[in-house]
Amino acid sequence: MQRRDFIKSAALAGVAASVGASAQSPVKRPESPYMVYRTLGRTGERVSAIGLGGAHIGFGGQDAEAGAIKLMHAAIDGGITFFDNSWDYNDGRSEERMGKALKEGNLRSRVFLMTKTDSHSAQGWNKQLEESLRRMQVDMIDLVQIHEVIRMNDPEAVFAPGGAMEAAIAARKAGKIRYIGFTGHKDPAIHLHMIDFAEKHGFHFDTVQMPINIMDAHFRSFQHQVVPVANAKGIGVLAMKTFAFGALIQANVADPIDMLHYSMSLPVSVVITGMPTMPRLQQALTAAKTFKPMTKEQIATLLSKSKALAADGHLEKFKTSETFDGTSRNPEWLA
What we know:
single chain; 335 residues; alpha/beta; 8-stranded parallel beta barrel; two-stranded antiparallel sheet; 15 helices; disordered N terminus
């Protein structure tokens, strides 16, 4: 490493060490008696255990917008306070619709708002953040996550001098964001490397997002390898792909409510699920209303149903193919 790069890296480490643990005051939001709420890691934030997935609300053309906004309003009325999104979802349409939904009902204060950025450079990260703020018509986002940490060298790029982490820390200091996390869907080893690499730079992630479903326990298991580490370090765990992007529904392996209950029974803060229609929203709300932690016997039964399907990961294509790797198909997003 050249002396100039070493100095920059040391400076980043110093800044991270001084603000690595978010010194934010948790926001109190209304809670419904029909929803489950949990604490998000060591942030102290109370969030709904069911989170609304942002990708699905951007599906369909302009004629689908009114329905998506109505659905988000119904989700909030049902007690959902955690809203997921990403800079790259549907060419920005998901963030735009979410922004309209929150502004139309003056509902921003009732939602813990999260989005994700792809860029590994400070310049690119700042550009994407500003676009997300504009699209969602807000001046602050509660949580921004480094999206798609899916390559073993991604942590090095994010924490490099002039990398995305410099911009994220500066944005938090400026009050544009409150918390910082990361996501990924490829391999638990990459997640563990990201957590370890951050620790070596004196930085503590507030959240980490990963696939959690009844097949994950059998193949490249985030549940077994990453969740215990995140829990031990006070990092809030965000579960996604409960239905393996629909593969488990198509395979008719188990009842959808049971699969949601399974993910909710694990030590996670939020189970983020896609809600493209009102029936899917009602399904998620029913899962929350009827939730009781599953017994060991119930969990074992569900896992026995999925074991054969999960053996080689062919139904978890986000782990075994590039089908879900947006930054691989669009490398310019990383710049």
